[in-house]
Amino acid sequence: MSRPLRALSLAHTLSGPSRPLARPLVVAAPPVLARNASWFKNIGFGLPETWRRNMKKGEEKEAVPEPQQGSVFDAVVEDKAEEVQAKRRPPPKDTRFKSAFRKMSHRKLNDIGRLVAGMPADEAILQLQFSEKRAARTWVKSTLAFARDHAVARGLRRDRLVVQEAWVAKGKKEARVDIKGRGRMGVKHHPRARIHFVLAEGKTWAEKREAADAKVLHKVRSAGVVREDGKLRRKVVSGWAW
């Protein structure tokens, strides 16, 4: 007699003398890839007794600091303020700047330096911008602008910056071949020079004008009331007596 398919499947799942139940599959636990912080306390389990005693003594000696009131960043801020105060330097009185050596005569460059010496920094840059000299419009103006920015970065006030000094230094002369006619040749020596600037805080033109006017006014003296009361000296006496 044939059995239905459902009965066969049910019979295989029931236990009996000839069909013991199969053992359930045991799934292995996944390997431990991370541990809690409390696991490290049991490291000394397999160590000798003397080592474990020393570890316990070290733990007992560690004292827990008392909690302090206030923010934890207060001490850091105070230390930083003290360091900044110690490192702070007084502002400089002046700043110096120089250009690179350029292919130019030191005599021609000296004329440009004499043009801007004594001027306010911004006024000197404006004069160089509209100068007839090509060097003044290009690299001399850029050098002075860099010097002004450098002085402002060091703490000097821009509205009181004055070109206190300007001088020229000579460099090495470059020797070049000068080809001439009829198989002749010569040597040309091209000069090199650079310019130095000293910027410092000084009086503006308005302050200089006021000081000059005050000096002129100080020289004026009033005639006073007794101007004509003095003796008449070197009196001219005519020869005619009538």
UniProtKB/TrEMBL annotation:
It comes from Cutaneotrichosporon oleaginosum. One of its GO terms (biological process) is translation. InterPro entries: Ribosomal_uL22, Ribosomal_uL22_bac/org-type, Ribosomal_uL22_sf. This is Ribosomal protein L22. Keywords: Ribonucleoprotein, Ribosomal protein. GO terms for cellular component: mitochondrial large ribosomal subunit. The keyword Metal-binding does not apply. It comes from the Eukaryota.
